[in-house]
């Protein structure tokens, strides 16, 4: 099991590849709608605009200060900085100042379906990977056509023209046209077949830290998010679905709800109730007044303990799915001088983005509008069309900024639910879930049990590796066609078969066990996060058993992976890996290749107080290929690391009698400022194709921290979250 | 009808006195800069100023306001300290998803008003009630230091 | 589910000591079927007031359930679970089919139709101090409640506790008193106050220590008592730990709103008493209650046993850090309410108790107080916060905001949980 040398695509949903292959560039699309950031009633924009492809629209504007340039951003912005990245890529080739352009979120449309993703989706740290070439080509194509248009106006050869800051210049005369002045002409020209891109030496934007395009709007508290939407005649609503999966509403006191001041209506669907009111608070009071009794159904007997015991039991499954194998792992295992095995357990996890789930929706007899933050706009739109019994093109979905995604909004069941309620009323409905609803009815990162086994030579070096993964296959529900023919969820190979390590022989098998009573879903880092914890913990155990230094032991295993070695060595050097620490302190290491990027991570902890862990320092070295915006790479690693550290220490969703127990931040603990360690990040200069970054820090957190705890205290924790495991150790 | 004074303007709101200020701001007055995160004063997303102090609007029934003036993120634009804080935030690009940031900024302004040159410890004590799920804490702390320098 | 301290003590005692005397007390009159005539609005209003004084709704409503429809679980360690009955007028599930006399007997004597003896989680021995007329008024009010056709779950009480007749024995010793006549040596206001406190208010049930048979102690009346982690504070006029240090204004504010500046905010069971009962008292009844409480002879509270080395510096530092994150949203780092006075905890009795009983309890269970301005809630903490974390928060809070040296360490919460 070796790493592909230059991985340019993450194996995200590998099975779904090509389900719907994007109409790649060049492509012409007519846009008839104004900004997707809703600011008032929709006005049809009838200006003939220059739209050389799905990402750029240049209006023939003559208003001073208005460039007329709008960029349409294919991926949703949920904090990862992708708008800034996308603007950088287009602007680099279009030769405009990123501050000159207006931005629009892409509507649901086949034009934005990236190859490999199956649908228009933002997730899996794939955006920069997918957009890297596409968006630069989009910018270059537009620039070429604008230059041609100018050249024919001046009646000069193209070579006399250059472009700068949104203008085409006639070099000999010094004359110039703004792009907007050329839009009408350019719109008549055919899009060229080959589009040359700038050589890296000419870049002025790519590779340099740039301010985020959304900083000001966010700092000023502008209404950007789905939850901020206000449309005329809109009413507010909140919902309660049966807290036990599969249950339905039973008795309720509708009169009491309707007597609550400000309440207008009580709506019900199969598994949930919605109270409509003048404002959220009235709706919430109305919901309380309903005092619903739920018919909980058969899942009311489920508790987390049962989920774990089913997973552990499956370790003995005699007929697993053989997912990957290299060499004869079994024979090598038998031949080995010694064998070592360990079992790891990881919990159900909630996403808990800061913006609670919400959806604003207006269904009319002949059309519908939906304002929502979603990572899967086409699926969300299609689901509304389905519920409202409308053709897809009659449903307009307006993508909003998302207040934190982490995979939660790769689901769209909340949009389906909103449509079912909205269909019952003539007015626009804004549904906001309480935080309690958001956590209880989340769709969770699955719980997993992994057993790893190594066959070792007399020096404790690896001869053979066997991995068994037990747990759900998220892809089987999310996009059934994505499941491999043999039933394997390829995502679970991340960090196991996609890894910098070279093992002489190895085998990965999989036992699928779906958790009863919950729906499982993608979660920041997806398979890579869970896989890295088990693999990097296990390698650490093997290193310690062999009496080797954990960094040196790893270095040997990645000897033919120069990029991995570089980040490992850099992290070790910058963290002072070899300098001794006081008693009770310890350092842990993890090295990874995930999402097309390499990370070396060293975490230092202070455990001088027994059973308490204080993270004192985090050092990360990263090679994510060609950096687009180094500062935002740092930001993603910082944030992803803090997200991962908090989760690793504190978080586990538990069920009792079929109900989720952790339903707000008093019970779902989030790392806070006074717990966040200093994090230093070192970026390796690289000209390889860019990799993803948004989830890498999160994946690194758990193994590096668990390894640091083992180094400081001698406690090897194989169960997450770590804090309760440590207290019980 | 209750009268609430927000950003130097008196508004009438037809709500019961137990309605938290947050929902009056967001749903009645349309001031959506103040965010809803938890509803139980655990996250700080709803932080506004009451008499200049940082408070959680989700846990403040409007009936208890008694005419005291409220300032929201929409109403701080002319305050030099607030401008320094917002500039510091933009200078080092603190925001990620940005959802928690109005609350963070309102907390930061209140902190700097009381304590123009806070130490890391002061900042941590004042800001740890504000959750950022995207994990921007390190930049928030730095931006507060920078803002203290800017407004000095 | 909460543990009802009272029921725990009453029932365990009743069974252990007194079962032998069962079945000897069977000389009550059979119920006469009387159909309630249509009561006049004044009677209904009076009944509602009395029902509030007696705090019926708090116990007879399940969390999130319909008012008075019962179903609230009371877990009695070692015995099982009792569920409050449905007292809405539904004939099948509630008390709609009861006659007034049957209702009076149930409330005053603890005997419900069919000769079922109620477990004394229902404080009928105090309610017996209300007149039959008053209880009929309560009945009249309850007939106006929305009927709910839902039976609470059956009590899950283990043998031999499941024999309701066992209660007869208990009643012999601790059982129903009767409305007592006014004491002419005191003012009418004092007498009214005594009726409120000793009767419907049933204050002694929590605030008096128990005697050997686990009835309420008369010799140490209102000296305060601890059960299952919650302390009901000393109500006597003791200057140090009783109401002696409270001003009339503070008492008045506390009984009206659940909060008094410098004394903190009612939490846990007391918050329920304020929410469902005391805040509805008339001004004159409140004044009467204060007059009577002020006359209670001073009783020293039991001194806390300093049984631990107390928190370490590291534990206090952790507590400070956790407090800044989890608690400062409401209490600032100073203990002053951030947005509302209700969250001002400095000065509270809870922060002067070195054992930190109520402090730990409120952290573990949270608290809900209903005021005229709406619900004031403290969330409970757990899950991602370990027992040690919560103990450290409590220790820090006590020391820094209560200026009281904690008599417990990082294991306090685990110890309490294990003792339940
Ligand atoms: S919404 Fe108010 S603190 Fe979370
Ligand atoms: S920036 Fe996303 S929650 Fe703070």
TrEMBL record, chain A:
The residues covered by the Aldehyde oxidase/xanthine dehydrogenase a/b hammerhead domain are 220-298
InterPro entries xref list:
Ald_Oxase/Xan_DH_a/b (IPR000674), Ald_Oxase/Xan_DH_a/b_sf (IPR036856), AldOxase/xan_DH_MoCoBD1 (IPR008274), AldOxase/xan_DH_MoCoBD2 (IPR046867), AldOxase/xan_DH_Mopterin-bd_sf (IPR037165), N-heterocyclic_Hydroxylase (IPR052516), OxRdtase_Mopterin-bd_su_IorB (IPR012368), TAT_signal (IPR006311)
User: Matching SMART domains, A to Z?
Assistant: Ald_Xan_dh_C
Recorded GO molecular functions are: oxidoreductase activity
Q: Where would you find the membrane-spanning parts of this chain? A: none
Per its UniProt record, what SUPFAM superfamilies does this chain match?
Answer: CO dehydrogenase molybdoprotein N-domain-like (SSF54665), Molybdenum cofactor-binding domain (SSF56003)
Its signal peptide is none
Q: What is this protein called?
A: Aldehyde dehydrogenase
> What organism is listed for this UniProt entry?
Acetobacter oeni
Lineage, top ranks: Bacteria, Pseudomonadati, Pseudomonadota, Alphaproteobacteria, Acetobacterales
TrEMBL record, chain B:
Keywords from UniProt, A to Z, are: 2Fe-2S, Iron, Iron-sulfur, Metal-binding, Oxidoreductase
A Pfam family found in this protein is Fer2_2
**Domain 2Fe-2S ferredoxin-type: start-end pairs:** 1-76
PROSITE patterns in UniProt: 2FE2S_FER_1, 2FE2S_FER_2
The UniProt record lists the keyword Iron-sulfur = yes
Keyword check for Iron-sulfur, yes or no: yes
Entry's Gene Ontology molecular function annotations? 2 iron, 2 sulfur cluster binding; metal ion binding; oxidoreductase activity
Name it. Answer: 2Fe-2S ferredoxin-type domain-containing protein
Automatic annotation (TrEMBL), chain C:
Gene Ontology cellular-component terms listed:
plasma membrane
> Which molecular-function annotation in GO is an example for this chain?
electron transfer activity
Q: Which interval of the chain is the signal sequence?
A: 1-33
* Top-level taxon of the source organism: Bacteria
Q: Which residues bind heme c 3?
A: 327, 330-331
What are its cofactors? Answer: heme c
Sequence intervals crossing the membrane = none
Keyword ATP-binding recorded: no
Kindly provide the name given to this protein in its UniProt entry: Alcohol dehydrogenase
Say which species the protein is native to. Acetobacter oeni
